[in-house]
Amino acid sequence: MLWVKSLHIIFVVTWMAAIFYLPRLFVYHVQALNEGDARGSERFKIMERKLFNGIMTPGAVLSIVFGLWLWLGYGISGGWLHAKLMLVLLLIVFHGLCWSHLRAFRDDRNTRTERYFRVVNELPVFLLFGIVILVVLKPF
Ligand code: HEM
Prior knowledge:
binds protoporphyrin IX containing FE, 5 helices, mainly alpha
């Protein structure tokens, strides 16, 4: 069980690292577009695609696979897990939001501002705090 939990935490860290970084790339991408830097914009498209496909999505899938293994394989559960899963669902929605922005940049049809992405960048921080506090303290 501890191997499964270790792998769960490793992939959670991977997922969170990418989910914190991708909106930051979007901030710089908007800056490059505002400066008319077409080469910079093409470079950001490559970085965003590789981060999303190579790190963020595999991290998400493997976090969930090992999390489900802990829950359904070892029967670890409780009210805290149900609340945690609600926040994980919001994290998955956020992942999907990032995917839609990535496609908007790829197709040169982004309309969002730098300020929007700076605010969006903070959202997963609150989800991470909530998820870790629920799973470690198990308050209910
Ligand atoms: C479908 C998704 C997920 C499921 C079913 C799930 C389920 C679980 C379960 C059953 C445990 C074991 C708890 C224990 O042994 O006390 C666990 C541990 C943990 N989970 Fe998840 N989890 C999921 C996603 C996540 C996500 C997205 C994060 C962070 C962003 C996360 C962070 C953690 C941490 C830090 C631990 C270790 C807690 C400890 O050892 O005290 N999990 N998870």
